[in-house]
Amino acid sequence: MRIGALEAGGTKMVMTVSDENMRILGRETLSTRTPEETVPGILRFFRDQKIDALGIGAFGPLDLNPLSATYGNITETPKLAWRHYPLLKTLREKLGVPTALDTDVNAAALCEALMGAAKGLNSCVYLTVGTGIGAGVMCNGRLVHGLMHPEWGHMLLAPHPEDPMPEGICPYHKGCLEGLASGPSLEKRWGVPGQALPEDHIAWEIEAHYLAQFCVSALLAISAERIILGGGVMAQRHLFPRIRRETQRLLNGYLPCAGNMDSLIVPPACYPDSGMLGALILGKRALEEKK
Ligand code: ZN
To answer: What is the pTM of this model?
Structure first.
C-alpha cells in the first residue's frame, strides 16, 4: 500500500509517500505559485509514485462541510490565485484515489494526538506560531469542524500594556492573536526578525502574554488536556517557561486541575513532521473508509 501526503502551504507544497507503516518512500517539494503552475507538478509526483490514497493538510480557510456544494474548496484566502480553488475535487478526480482533506493544523493535531505529544488523551490543541497562527483542535477523539473549522489565530486579545503596536498587523482585526504574535508581527514591531532579538528583550514577555491568553482560552473553552505549541517562532524554547508562568498568572488559581503547566503546555513530539504524518493518517483513513 502506498499512501500520499500533501502539505499544501502558502510558500511550498511538500509531497510525501509512505507505506502502510509510515515508512517514507519518497518526497518532493514545490514552490506554491498559482494553481495552474503548481497543481500539474503535484499530480505528476503522485502519479509517478502510484499512490493508493491521498491525505491533504492545507492552508485555509477551507470549506470542510461535507454537505456543501463547495466542499473541499479553499475559500477566502488572501492568496488570490487560490481563492475558491477546488483543491479536494481536483486532486481526487485527477488522481482517481480515495482522498481526504483537512486544515494543516488539524492534520498536525491528529498526528500529535495519535502518535505524539498528546498520545492517549481525548483532547488537545495544536497551535502553530509562524508566518501565520492557526490552531487544530481534537475533542473527544475527533477533529473539530463546525461552521467551518477553528480559526483561533484570529481570537481577540487584551493588549500588553507596554506593547508599542497593540493593534497588530492583521488586515481584518485590531488586536488579534495572529496580528499580534506571528513572526511577521514580531518583525514589524521590533524592526528585526524574532531570531535576532535577545532572550531578555521585552518582545518575549509581550509574546508570552499573547500566547498565554490563547492557552487560557483553550483550557477554559474546550478543557484541553494538552496544548501543543509548534511553528517557527516556538523554536525560541525559552518562550515555553514564560508562557507557562503567564498562563498560571492569568488563570489566577481558577483551574487548580491545571496545576502542572510543564506537562500541559508542550512542544510537538513529531515536529517538523506533525503535519506530514497527520496528512498520511488522513490518507490511510480515506483508504480504509473506501474498503
Ligand atoms: Zn485577525
So the answer is: 0.95
